[in-house]
Amino acid sequence: MRAYDVIMKKRNGLENTKEEVEFMINNYVSGELKDYQMAAWLMAVYFNHMTDEERYNLTIAMLNSGDRVSLKDIKGKKIDKHSTGGVGDKTTIALAPMVASLGLSVSKLSGRGLGHTGGTIDKLESIPGYKTALSTEEFIDIANKTGIAIAGQTANIAPADKKIYALRDLTATVDEISLIASSIMSKKLAIDSDGIILDVKAGTGAFMKDIQDAKTLAESMVSIGKMNGKNMKALVTNMNQPLGMKVGNALEVYEAIETVKGKGPNDFQELCVELACYMAELSEEMSYEEAKEKLNKNIENGTVAKKMKEWISAQGGNSEVVDDPNLLTISKNKKEIYAENDGYIFNFDTEKIGIASMMLGAGRATKEDVIDLSVGLEVHVKLGDKIKKGDKIVTLYYSDNSDLKESEKTIKNAIKISDKKPDEFIVKTIYEIID
């Protein structure tokens, strides 16, 4: 088999076989296939796309290039969750104790943030003492004791994807649905779960700006998962505004703690509850309706907050933060931003909100950057809110190292106030459910 023939076949709009896809991936990982050959094939895929079968074969070829993580020694049904990322997305931190309170296991390997989207591991490290590096034995033991274990990824998962993604980034082939779907699912299927729920963000702060594109991506990933025998569901959710109100590491943990007590912002509270109930449904242990009734009771009677304390303590963290979130280190330096005219909050450039937070020090422009867990921002308004000139719209939490001036300028350019309300559909938390 020659790479030339595989590339030409795809260039001409034909379908590559399983063997051809495996040939390209395996030989690229081994170094026998050159960058220029893989780049040519990726560009052919970019323009001609992939069938469901090709997409699945690409996913499995990248999955088989590295390690798999077995969860067989963890008790109970294990439903994994993946978010495509966004501004203020601290969902895992509130969702895990909700799901565990329903008797399911949440065992996740999470990553760090880069760019305008935050990473779960960075956020958890703002909890004093919380240990994100766990041995396999520790991970399994904590999951069995508390129903939750969330740690940094250490396994060599899908190295083919890592190598190919770096090339995609250099050759303008990142934003192709089949390549995105295969990239995400090659890592998700490496974790031995019983099912996967996907939170696919759509809007100005998401990778997928267009809702229809996000839906297509969600359908592609659900198809790949089902072809692999997984129970799957995807929610296409709103990233046309920050999720919740707080953006930044310790700030987002604070908001997640409030949410497990039933006191979170409406959109974030709704999303966490819906995801938890659909995860319970995927486990086949209970129906969505049964899960919702039980979860609402667990939030109200403090069971979810108690579960969060157990989990944080088991991973070495100070669980007292659940009772008193003020124990988190949040910067005392504040700068308020006020509305410059009357009207409705018509539009957020949510990506700019995330970039403003990064300028304060809450995110990384490069992998080598050191972040400040104490800084970030709080947005006091949501889409459609009626405001008056002089109303407080954003609070910046900054440090001596923050680029406060540029952050403030970016925020002002990111929020549009109009004399008309935005479309009601855009304001929704969940745009579509795909299964």
Automatic annotation (TrEMBL):
PANTHER family: THYMIDINE PHOSPHORYLASE. InterPro entries: Glycosyl_Trfase_fam3 (IPR000312), Glycosyl_Trfase_fam3_N_dom (IPR017459), Glycosyl_Trfase_fam3_N_dom_sf (IPR036320), Nuc_phospho_transferase (IPR035902), PYNP-like_C_sf (IPR036566), PYNP_C (IPR013102), Pyrmidine_PPas_bac/euk (IPR018090), Pyrmidine_PPase_CS (IPR017872). The keyword Glycosyltransferase applies. GO terms for molecular function: 1,4-alpha-oligoglucan phosphorylase activity; thymidine phosphorylase activity. Belongs to the thymidine/pyrimidine-nucleoside phosphorylase family. It comes from the Bacteria. This is Thymidine phosphorylase. The keyword Glycosyltransferase applies. Homodimer.
